[in-house]
Design the sequence.
């Protein structure tokens, strides 16, 4: 048999039908939904008199539009409250499992799915959210869809998709101290641009990827959409199996053993052909920050902002720098920071809180910075308390919010005010993403922690050196 | 459900020649709390059209009376970022029926096709010529013929072809809906569930 990529193996095994000169009808194993992109899909079903076909394959959580304080009280904003209640009603009527606000399994959809053991190697997974690519870290084909497609999945457990092209990004070597997988993915996106992988599904491979934890892999796959990729995936290995075996709901289920055998075939065969191959060396990657208004506008934290000549649309580039209040040639080290946001489906997992806490332990929050620490899920919040991370954070002057998407897209009150600078561990630095006029600088959790204790853009390696002595 | 058919569109255009326009610009997240599909056009490009006080920003192209029409001509990688279909609903609700660019983000393209908004992808050189022409002469009428897969300007002789998946094309030409198609496949889907290999 012809050698196959992992992506092809999973995709081909889920094709119900190939429409001639058309898209494939693709079967979806796991469907995650949330309050913002599902109501119109349920509305559409009702309009056509259809019902949810396989309710047991859909799981719902409220995350995008919920407050991160006082979650026990009714949501103040009426429209938001109505949206969250609509999700609950739709799920109840259809028999869909729903983890509403305050539920012990509530949290950001891309944090809770994996931690509950619902995301498993070899699956096809969709959600009306572009960061669904996160689940690719487990060796799945996972991607974001629109609301019409949410309706398709609810109605038929299938969607119609044209098969993307295949790309492999191989990263050899090891990451240096003070550098996280967030820096690695920002580095890759800045080298290939924010549209550099449009039309492709990316497999991340190589020694550096194998060394990453599941949390770090999720951060990478999460951001694959930020280079335009349909999704990103990583072949399952011992790290994957160990992560899953620690989830009792999964390891104690009969599914665990039956899946164990097939996982080993979930690898790209030697000699399989990709439409495009890229190579990077992890040891070249510095701590990264962004300076513009798309995630491809990134640079080394100690670098200088490039000249507009690097782009083919100088007016867009200059508009972007104007928005940020920056100019070419500037270094951002020492630049004052007003807000720090640790959280989101990119960096709101326990490992991110550990990294942040390790950096701030024994230090104090800088006086003029407002810091939002938002765990990705109730489980992450509980774990942070159990491990003593929350205590470390409190002693350093920080406080933890309740879980949700929060300031990543600022649908709730967690908005960055106009003109203010925020170092954010989230995924998008688009204009107004964190609030109208907000200026976002994307970074990893260590760089966010360094900003939180110094009030400035600070190379986390500097603080780590001080620690070492 | 029957949808509006898309056959031939002839209109003046609105030029917005910026690259990497993301769906947060098209419809900011704070307007996504609604549970219906209607009314999003009002907040299309909200923070580029209006200032903090809600006053129109006169220089922005949607506020300039000389640029009107149902074709949006934009820059590379249009619709990147969030998967929110609200972006397509907002563009459609505002009155656009086609967006022309030299590249589209994948999710946006699917969302557009599922809502009768035609993404017309031409080459960078063609996009440059078209943009220049409509900025110079806002009254220029552009014709998009879906069946022939061409976009033309009669008075200048400009012609460019564009690609589209044959299935999606038929759906648009006939006003057919993908969900109806899938609902018609229930038996095949159940057979797949019984016999699947992975």
Sequence:
């Amino acid at each position: 048999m012809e050698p196959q990529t992992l992506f092809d193996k999973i995709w081909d095994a889920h094709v119900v039908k190939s429409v001639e000169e058309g898209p494939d009808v693709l079967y979806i194993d796991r469907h995650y939904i949330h309050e913002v992109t599902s109501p119109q899909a349920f509305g559409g079903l009702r309009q056509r008199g259809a019902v949810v076909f396989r309710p047991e394959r859909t799981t719902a959580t409220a995350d995008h539009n919920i407050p991160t304080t006082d979650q026990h009280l009714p949501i103040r904003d009426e429209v938001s409250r109505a949206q969250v209640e609509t999700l609950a009603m739709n799920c109840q009527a259809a028999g869909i499992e729903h983890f509403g606000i305050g539920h012990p399994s509530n949290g950001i959809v891309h944090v809770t799915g994996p931690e509950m053991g619902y995301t498993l190697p070899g699956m096809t997974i969709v959600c009306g959210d572009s960061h669904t690519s996160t689940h690719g870290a487990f060796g799945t084909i996972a991607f974001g869809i629109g609301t019409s497609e949410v309706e398709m999945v609810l109605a038929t457990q299938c969607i119609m998709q044209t098969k993307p092209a295949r790309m492999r990004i191989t990263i050899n070597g090891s990451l240096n101290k003070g550098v996280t997988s967030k820096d690695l993915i920002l580095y890759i996106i800045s080298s290939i641009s924010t549209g550099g992988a449009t039309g492709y599904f990316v497999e991340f491979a190589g020694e550096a990827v194998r060394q990453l934890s599941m949390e770090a892999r999720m951060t990478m796959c999460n951001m694959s959409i930020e280079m335009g990729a349909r999704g990103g995936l990583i072949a399952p290995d011992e790290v994957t199996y160990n992560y899953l075996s620690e989830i009792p709901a999964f390891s104690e289920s009969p599914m665990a053993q039956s899946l164990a055998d097939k996982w080993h075939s979930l690898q790209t065969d030697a000699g399989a052909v990709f439409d495009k191959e890229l190579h990077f060396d992890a040891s070249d990657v510095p701590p990264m920050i962004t300076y513009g208004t798309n995630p491809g506008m990134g640079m080394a934290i100690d670098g200088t902002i490039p000249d507009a000549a690097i782009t083919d649309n100088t007016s867009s580039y200059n508009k972007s720098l104007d928005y940020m209040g920056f100019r070419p040639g500037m270094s951002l080290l020492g630049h004052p920071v007003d807000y720090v946001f640790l959280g989101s489906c990119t960096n709101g997992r326990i490992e991110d809180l550990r990294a942040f806490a390790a950096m701030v332990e024994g230090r104090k929050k800088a006086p003029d910075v407002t810091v939002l620490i938002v765990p990705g899920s109730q489980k992450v919040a509980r774990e942070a308390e159990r491990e003593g991370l929350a205590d470390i954070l409190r002693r350093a002057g920080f406080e933890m919010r309740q879980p949700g998407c929060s300031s990543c897209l600022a649908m709730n009150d967690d908005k960055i005010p106009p003109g203010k600078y925020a170092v954010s561990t989230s995924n998008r630095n688009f204009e107004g993403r964190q609030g109208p006029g907000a200026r976002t600088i994307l970074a990893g959790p260590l760089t966010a922690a360094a900003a939180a204790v110094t009030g400035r853009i600070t190379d986390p390696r500097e603080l780590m050196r001080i620690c070492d002595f | 459900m029957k949808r509006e058919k898309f056959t031939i569109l002839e209109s003046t255009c609105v030029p917005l020649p910026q690259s990497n326009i993301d769906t947060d610009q098209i419809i900011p997240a704070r307007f996504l709390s609604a549970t219906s599909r209607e009314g999003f056009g009002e907040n299309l490009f909200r923070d580029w059209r209006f200032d903090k006080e809600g006053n129109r920003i006169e220089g922005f192209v949607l506020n300039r009376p000389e640029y009107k029409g149902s074709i949006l001509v934009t820059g590379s990688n249009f619709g990147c970022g969030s998967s929110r279909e609200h972006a397509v609903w907002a563009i459609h609700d505002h009155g656009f029926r086609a967006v022309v660019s030299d590249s589209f983000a994948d999710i946006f393209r699917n969302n557009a096709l599922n809502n009768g908004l035609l993404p017309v992808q031409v080459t960078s050189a063609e996009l440059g010529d078209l943009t220049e022409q409509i900025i110079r002469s806002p009254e220029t009428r552009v014709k998009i013929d879906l069946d022939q897969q061409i976009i033309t300007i009669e008075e200048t002789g400009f012609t460019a072809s564009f690609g589209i998946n044959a299935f999606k094309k038929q759906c648009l030409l006939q006003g057919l809906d993908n969900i109806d198609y899938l609902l018609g496949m229930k038996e095949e889907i159940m057979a797949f569930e019984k016999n699947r290999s992975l």
Q: What stands out?
A: Residues 182 and 189 of chain B are 9 Å apart (CA to CA). The first helix of chain B runs from residue 23 to 26. Chain B has a mean pLDDT of 96.
